[in-house]
């Protein structure tokens, strides 16, 4: 006779030394709700080979906690295989007549055993959900560039080594390197890829994607880093789930169901750089032959008519090479769109001038905003309220007076009790509504003036380049979102943060209307008609 033992309360080896118990097995570190645990698989193989004809467990829960599976094995599979099953604490022996005639005890006890992992699963799910919503990290491994806080493993802090690598990857992308070129550079510098780096730091990390003993950086790995919003300090968790504790099929949740917490960890890159990098990733760019970086205007030039990209061509004259750009649609079919040809030298010259002018304007704009923000609020306030505010206040006062006069009319029997209560309710409701409208109007008026330059980080983004003397890839992509080329080679430039620029100019124009100021008026006049420049 052979026996399968899952006694956790007794030593395994003395049991296997018993004359009738030839084999003993443990379920250590495996949930009994799982029937794919190694020890159980081994027992099934021994049963099929005829080496085991009896299984002994402490109780039914030690065989398993899956109601359906326990009954399938105990009532069907074991009898088919001629295997005797004994559960000591549950007083169950498959060969005992009393057990053969009892059809209720076994299912009830198995159902109760299943309720334990079911309740545990619900409790764990609720706990993890609450932790995710609080911005606590519940993953097994930290993102590359971060590490778990030694004092709190549910908090992520910067990894001093890997975080610098992540910053370099974003910087190189802005400077014109492709994902392949970045991967090659990382390998040449001897920087370990994410999986190998985790192992080198003592993390017990395993992955099914590793094919070779020594891994290498890939364009895909670089792309994942460039796309990962975690580097903005945004922790996104709970993207997947399973139907229940029995079924391990992965279900992908919709974005609305994700747990998203901003500021859960220190950011590694600015949101502006992240936005620009991901804009570049959406456009196909080609690395210059024999070069590590893309062309200066790759991914930015667009035909104003067909909205397709312009491609770079070159020609030689007088021993020199001259570059120019043409519409990609025209290149494939000249009858579909005109060439929209523009020389590279013209582009460089005009773009440099426009960027210099744009930075100059933003320098003046920052000075204007600083001036506006230092003016005492009482001096800035318009002496006369806007017509809407005046109308709201007058309406409020009128309703308050009418409400106050109601009781006198009721006392003079000019109003019945029902009329008095109804009118009082109407006036009170109207006054409450007007109070809210007045507060909203105050907020709108204050927003025109107060802290107008408090959140204009985009201005500093441009000003970081200072006095520009020549173009480079990072400067161009950081300042310009797109360049549209007309049939005659004219350029229509769209700078980053065009809408933000318009809003600030509109606010300054409104302030200048209510509170005339020579400095602001001169600045607005310098922008030309409409107060908006460069697309």
From TrEMBL:
<dbReference type="InterPro" id="IPR006119">
    <property type="entry name" value="Resolv_N"/>
</dbReference>
<keyword id="KW-0175">Coiled coil</keyword>
<protein>
    <submittedName>
        <fullName>Recombinase TnpX</fullName>
    </submittedName>
</protein>
<dbReference type="InterPro" id="IPR036162">
    <property type="entry name" value="Resolvase-like_N_sf"/>
</dbReference>
<dbReference type="GO" id="GO:0003677">
    <property type="term" value="F:DNA binding"/>
</dbReference>
<feature type="coiled-coil region">
    <location>
        <begin position="424"/>
        <end position="451"/>
    </location>
</feature>
<dbReference type="InterPro" id="IPR025827">
    <property type="entry name" value="Zn_ribbon_recom_dom"/>
</dbReference>
<dbReference type="InterPro" id="IPR011109">
    <property type="entry name" value="DNA_bind_recombinase_dom"/>
</dbReference>
<dbReference type="Pfam" id="PF13408">
    <property type="entry name" value="Zn_ribbon_recom"/>
</dbReference>
<dbReference type="InterPro" id="IPR038109">
    <property type="entry name" value="DNA_bind_recomb_sf"/>
</dbReference>
<dbReference type="Pfam" id="PF07508">
    <property type="entry name" value="Recombinase"/>
</dbReference>
<feature type="domain" description="Recombinase">
    <location>
        <begin position="143"/>
        <end position="287"/>
    </location>
</feature>
<dbReference type="InterPro" id="IPR050639">
    <property type="entry name" value="SSR_resolvase"/>
</dbReference>
<dbReference type="GO" id="GO:0000150">
    <property type="term" value="F:DNA strand exchange activity"/>
</dbReference>
<dbReference type="Pfam" id="PF00239">
    <property type="entry name" value="Resolvase"/>
</dbReference>
């Amino acid at each position: 006779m052979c026996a399968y033992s899952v006694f956790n309360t007794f030593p395994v080896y003395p049991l296997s030394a018993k004359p009738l118990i030839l084999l003993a097995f443990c379920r250590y570190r495996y949930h009994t709700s799982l029937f794919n645990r190694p020890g159980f698989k081994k027992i099934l193989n021994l049963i099929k080979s005829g080496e085991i004809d009896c299984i002994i467990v402490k109780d039914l829960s030690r065989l398993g906690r899956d109601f359906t599976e326990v009954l399938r094995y105990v009532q069907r599979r074991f009898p088919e295989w001629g295997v005797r099953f004994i559960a000591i604490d549950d007083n169950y022996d498959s060969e005992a007549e009393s057990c053969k005639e009892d059809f209720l005890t076994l299912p009830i006890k198995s159902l109760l055993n299943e309720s334990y992992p079911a309740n545990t699963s619900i409790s764990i799910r609720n706990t993890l959900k609450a932790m995710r919503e609080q911005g606590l990290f519940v993953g097994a491994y930290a993102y590359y560039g971060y590490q778990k806080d030694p004092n709190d493993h549910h908090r992520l802090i910067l990894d001093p080594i890997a975080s610098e690598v992540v910053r370099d990857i974003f910087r190189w992308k802005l400077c014109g390197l492709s994902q392949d070129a970045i991967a090659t550079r990382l390998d040449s510098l001897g920087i370990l890829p994410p999986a190998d780096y985790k192992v080198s730091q003592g993390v017990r990390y395993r992955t099914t994607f590793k094919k070779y003993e020594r891994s290498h950086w890939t364009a895909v790995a670089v792309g994942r880093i460039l796309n990962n919003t975690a580097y903005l300090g945004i922790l996104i968790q709970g993207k997947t789930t399973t139907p229940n504790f029995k079924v391990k099929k992965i279900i992908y949740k919709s974005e609305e169901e994700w747990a998203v917490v901003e500021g859960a960890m220190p950011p590694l890159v600015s949101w502006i750089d992240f936005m620009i990098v991901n804009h570049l990733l959406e456009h196909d760019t080609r690395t210059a032959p024999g070069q590590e970086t893309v062309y200066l205007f790759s991914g930015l030039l667009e035909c104003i008519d067909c909205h397709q990209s312009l491609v770079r061509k070159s020609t030689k004259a007088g021993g020199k090479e001259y570059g120019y750009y043409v519409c990609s649609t025209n290149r494939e079919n000249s009858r579909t769109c005109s060439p929209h040809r523009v020389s590279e030298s013209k582009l460089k010259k005009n773009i440099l001038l426009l960027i210099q002018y744009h930075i100059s304007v933003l320098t003046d704009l920052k000075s204007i905003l600083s001036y506006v923000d230092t003016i005492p609020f009482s001096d800035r306030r318009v002496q006369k309220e806007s017509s809407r505010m005046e109308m709201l206040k007058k309406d409020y006062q009128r309703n308050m007076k009418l409400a106050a006069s109601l009781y006198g009319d009721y006392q003079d029997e000019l109003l019945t009790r029902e009329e008095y209560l109804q009118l009082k309710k109407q006036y009170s409701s109207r006054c409450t509504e007007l109070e809210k409208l007045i507060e909203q109007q105050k907020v709108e008026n204050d927003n025109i003036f107060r802290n107008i330059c408090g959140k204009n980080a985009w201005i500093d983004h441009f000003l970081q380049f200072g006095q520009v003397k020549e173009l480079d890839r990072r400067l161009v992509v950081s300042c310009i979102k797109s360049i549209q080329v007309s049939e005659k080679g004219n350029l229509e430039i769209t700078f980053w943060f065009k809408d933000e620029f318009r809003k600030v100019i509109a606010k300054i124009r409104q302030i200048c209307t209510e509170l005339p100021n020579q400095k602001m008026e001169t600045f607005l006049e310098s922008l030309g008609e409409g107060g908006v420049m460069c697309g």
